[in-house]
């Protein structure tokens, strides 16, 4: 019988082996822990800079040699970060980038910040997580904490990350010798008010020790850390955050299509009027479709998970379909408008203003403009 969380962490063997837990606690408290960030994109790069600013030696690991070169030269490639801050932490040797895992032995806390796309069949693609975890597993030792931050389906942390680590090092016990947790990213590109440092985060560990260390590690750079009972809860709440937006955007997108057929009813005026209610209403606005790294993908992750539990997320799936149809609705609307002009469709010139998935960012992933 598998021992309970309490039994594992309080048994005589665990007491003797509790030293890795206490040592990492002390390292974090003394700002002597080495931080490793796997994936230096829009999530990993800002996180690495925050730890470097806080006085932690930080190693960024990315398979893109150009990205590594630019970072090591102090060349900031993230619009949300200050050029001066990036140059300062790099010049002070607090932040170093590598295109391999040669220095992974030195790392005390790993953050996995890699892409989680979907396959051509809209199923979760965890290959990046698996690859990153296998690379970490080759260097796994007592006293290391591995935190997954990539948005994914509930169960990934324990089934994929923990599974790979335990298979590689059967002599190490998670929760006693090494530690695993999930803490989802909450990056909002282009948002100058909420940054990595002042946006509250959620964390859930495989065991109580894992959660405690993750909270302590995150508190070094984040003001507020909300802990939950396990990684699945943290994974699920991240999907809820994004799908909440997806279904509400779908609602106004559908209402926008309805009001287009009605006389003297503007969806914009309707939303403006509804927004005067001080409770029970949050304003969402119609658009040409969804884009970015999470919202277009997450409903498919949840739908796939639901099927594993013999459940169908009808409402969520329908909402995703409404949003995915919006670029085509816009195209049809433009075609209809051209038909009322003295120009043949084939001779018309259409100007598209804005290619990124949202205002004031340079990110074109899943942008409706490219549909």
Name some characteristics of this structure:
371 residues; Rossmann fold; disordered N terminus
Report the portion of residues in β strands: 5-15%
CATH class category name of the largest domain: Alpha Beta
Oligomer: single chain
Total strand count, please? 8
Overall body shape: globular
Q: What is the residue-averaged pLDDT? A: 92
- Overall CATH architecture of the largest domain: 3-Layer(aba) Sandwich
- Describe the biggest sheet? 8 strands, mixed
**Integer-rounded radius of gyration:** 23 Å
How helical, in percent, are the residues? 40-55%
Quickly count the helices: 13
Q: What is the straight-line distance between the termini?
A: 52 Å
The secondary-structure class comes to alpha/beta
Tally of domains: 2
Strand order of the largest sheet: 3-2-1-4-5-6-7-8
Give start-end ranges of low-pLDDT stretches.
Answer: 1-17
The CATH topology assignment of the largest domain is Rossmann fold
CATH homologous superfamily heading of the largest domain: NAD(P)-binding Rossmann-like Domain
Would you list the SSEs in sequence order as H and E? HHHEHEHHEEHEHEEHEHHHH
Describe this structure in words.
This protein has 371 residues and is an alpha/beta fold. Helix content is 43%, strand content 9%. It folds into two domains: 5-229, Rossmann fold (3-Layer(aba) Sandwich); 238-370, NAD(P)-binding Rossmann-like Domain (Rossmann fold). It has 13 helices and eight strands. It has an eight-stranded mixed sheet, with helices on both faces. It is globular and about 75 Å long. The model is unreliable at 1-17 (pLDDT under 50).
